[in-house]
Please model this.
Amino acid sequence: DQQVKQNSPSLSVQEGRISILNCDYTNSMFDYFLWYKKYPAEGPTFLISISSIKDKNEDGRFTVFLNKSAKHLSLHIVPSQPGDSAVYFCAASTNYGGATNKLIFGTGTLLAVQP
Amino acid sequence: EAGVAQSPRYKIIEKRQSVAFWCNPISGHATLYWYQQILGQGPKLLIQFQNNGVVDDSQLPKDRFSAERLKGVDSTLKIQPAKLEDSAVYLCASSLTSGGAYEQYFGPGTRLTVT
Model:
């Protein structure tokens, strides 16, 4: 049972254009969402997050949008740079502010930004 | 600030052999996680420690996997005996505490190949 789904295994974008990575979830109890970026042979690194009380969070070139009714979130990268080429994981948690911080990860999307 | 350290980085063993992985979290981080990432999938939580106590080990195959966190700092994850399906990257992560929006910081992982 895949509770967090990233249906696009890969995405190719031209440098300077917008990259949009999508994530869908099935568990309506998820209340906190995160995006992680992973380079080869390295562990995932935190990128940006959003709680379920918001519908948008922005940090520099990165913006995450949350549509709770559709159980969908997306990560926008504008403008895209070659250094953004990596695997992006969407993750969700059911216990924001609680005693545990268990993350459920999607399968990842490989982003390739072409110079 | 030093990141999460893991060793070894790579390990190749034959099925039915034993293997152990070591993790040193970021100094001051009370919560430590072990994840298993199989090729093409997102990380899956195996076990979560809060200081030296287990918070969640619901997805740990306890018949062959064991983990401990001595003195609430370093941790080891052991597999005995290994199976072919245990081939994966084992990621260690830590966070300041287990609740709330505290992001998890990941180590580089140990790539295990079982032949």
In short: The mean pLDDT of chain A is 93.
